[in-house]
Amino acid sequence: MKAQGVALWLLGTALVLCSMYTHGFRRCLTSVDMHHLEECFQEIKRAVQTKDIFPNITILSTVETLRSVKPMDVCCVTKNLLEFYMDRVFKDHQELKPQILRRISSIANSFLYMQKTLQQCQVQRRCHCSEEATNATRMVHDNYDQLEVPSAATKSLGELDVFLAWIEKNHQETSPA
User: Fold this and answer.
1) CA dihedral 66, 72, 76, 79 (to 10 degrees)
2) Average pLDDT, stretch 115-122?
3) Could you tell me the pTM of the whole model?
4) How far apart are CA 25 and CA 128, in angstroms?
5) Fewer beta carbons below 10 Å: N end or C end of the chain?
6) Could you please report the per-residue DSSP string of 7-72?
7) Range name among 58-67, 154-163, 168-177 with the lowest pLDDT average
């Protein structure tokens, strides 16, 4: 009888832990239209990348750690990179063409929406940052800081497809909470 009780308790505990793991960040990610984001980026990509005067330097592309981010760190890295784009790249980028500005603004609005959702997750303590996650985003900031601000902003905006692909890869089966 005790063996059955222990087995049921273990099964229940395993189900609760699995549920917490699978719902941890996935419940936090909002249903952002990735197709729209990618479309906006494609419309500005050529204009932005032609302004890039350092084609052999990358800010996001070579960050191997983005590819190896653990599932438990996806929320943190996403949150940190959204902040990076909102607080630095979009603010530092100087654009004169209104049609490009509108597309950048549309992307920024989508990022703001994702940021607000992730802030709710942080309040609920479902978005923990490990040392590896913090180091990954610190490398992005360090790469950015090695260039002059206008060049770094242009380069980061031109590499936005790397971040969008990473979001899509890590949240492709996500549905709203």
Assistant:
1) 90
2) 78
3) 0.78
4) 10
5) N
6) HHHHHHHHHHHHHHHHHTTTTTS----HHHHHHHHHHHHHHHHTT-S-TT--SSTT-HHHHT--GG
7) 168-177
Task: Tell me 73's DSSP state.
Answer: G
The CATH fold of domain 2-171: Growth Hormone; Chain: A; (1.20.1250)
All structural domains of the chain with their residue ranges: 2-171
Count the Cβ atoms, other than its own, within 10 Å of residue 59: 26
- Alpha-carbon distance of 19 to 157, in angstroms, equals 36
Q: At what angle do helices 34-49 and 149-158 cross, to 10 degrees?
A: 130
How many angstroms separate the CA atoms of 177 and 166, rounded?
21
CA 9 to centroid of chain Cα atoms: 37
User: How many residues appear in the chain?
Assistant: 177
pLDDT at 51: 92
Instruction: Quickly tell me which residue has 């932005």 as its tokens.
Output: 48
Mean pLDDT taken over the chain: 80
Separation CA 18–CA 13 (nearest Å): 9
